[in-house]
Design brief:
Strand content: 15-25%
CATH class of the largest domain: Alpha Beta
């Protein structure tokens, strides 16, 4: 009887201790994953996949919350100003660093207001042109564009797809007219219709149209070829040595989140990224898993701001706010 009572007391004490220590019991309620993007795109699909896998590993609901506006600034601000308790997580992509690089007047500090968790993946971008354009290689594009200074139009759905083209123009000495779009879908529609002539766009979105012959792929932005489009050369192979651009993704928490919580979520995410099923998903969607440490991811974001600040300055790209 005494043993039974002692066991009951110890069990009750354990429950009280866990409740009194929110770090030890984390997570004991649903986690919100803020996705500062429109629903349905490749990055949104990745974010929702991660939400599902986090939920499975931590045995707690993870609720996706799309807050699309101003290249992700609105959703990012929500997380920056959320309680640092581990129950609000931010999915970010290249625009997180690019917003700082082009001089957006941000209501938060891109570095100081966040605790990095991990970089989840690099998504490859591909230089595509409408088939009506009389070019079949990067070299032909450069020659054709130089014969029509300022005559070619390139489209972008965000600064994450604008800056790769600005880098390309800077490295090749080309001048093109930038046509901004509010989302990947309207850009793709105009690319297919020939109303805009070319773009650096996510490989996962353009691959079906490249395979069908409705768009022509000239180069992969990454330093290695895409498994999804293995016959397409890299930009470096195609005649632009040193060129490299991808769209990356990762997750952050508000600054001052307890280190133990950051470490637990980070380790959970790294384990997810290393799963065979995640690697398969990444391969099928023209992406490469990363799974960096919080320190590595933080340094990567800072390096991205430096890199794209230089490109934005050279190209005269400035925020419109």
């Amino acid at each position: 009887m005494f043993r039974y009572l002692l066991a009951s007391v110890l069990a009750a004490y354990s429950c009280v201790s866990a409740a009194a220590d929110p770090i030890a019991s984390y997570p004991n309620r649903p986690v919100r994953l803020v996705i500062p993007l429109a629903p349905g795109g490749g990055s949104d699909i990745l974010a929702r996949l991660l939400a599902q896998k986090i939920s499975e590993r931590l045995k707690q609901s993870v609720i996706p919350d799309n807050r699309a506006a101003i290249d992700g600034v609105v959703g990012t601000e929500i997380v920056a100003k959320s309680a640092p308790d581990g129950y609000t997580v931010l999915f970010v992509s290249s625009s997180h660093a690019n917003n700082a690089a082009i001089g957006h007047k941000l209501p938060y500090d891109t570095i100081k207001d966040f605790a990095p968790l991990t970089q989840t993946a690099n998504q490859q971008v591909v230089l595509v042109v409408n088939p009506s354009l009389p070019v079949k290689s990067v070299k032909e594009l450069i020659e054709y564009s130089k014969s029509k200074p300022g005559g070619l139009n390139f489209g972008s759905s965000s600064n994450a797809t604008q800056l790769p083209m600005e880098l390309f123009n800077s490295m090749t000495g080309l001048k093109m007219v930038h046509i901004p779009y509010k989302g990947a879908s309207p850009l793709l529609i105009d690319l297919l219709g020939g109303r805009v002539e070319l773009s650096f766009a996510p490989a996962v979105a353009t691959r079906p149209y490249v395979v069908a012959g409705k768009l022509r792929a000239l180069a992969i932005g990454d330093i290695k070829r895409s498994v999804a489009l293995p016959d397409i050369p890299t930009a470096a192979e195609a005649g632009v040595p040193g060129y490299q651009a991808t769209i990356w993704s990762g997750l952050l928490m508000p600054a001052k989140t307890p280190t133990a919580i950051v470490e637990r979520m980070s380790k959970t995410l790294i384990a997810i990224v290393r799963e065979p099923s995640f690697k398969q998903w990444a391969t099928e969607n023209a992406s490469d898993p990363v799974g960096s440490t919080p320190d590595e991811f933080g340094k990567f974001i800072q390096a991205e701001i430096v890199k794209w600040s230089r490109i934005a300055k050279q190209a005269g790209v400035k925020a419109t706010d």
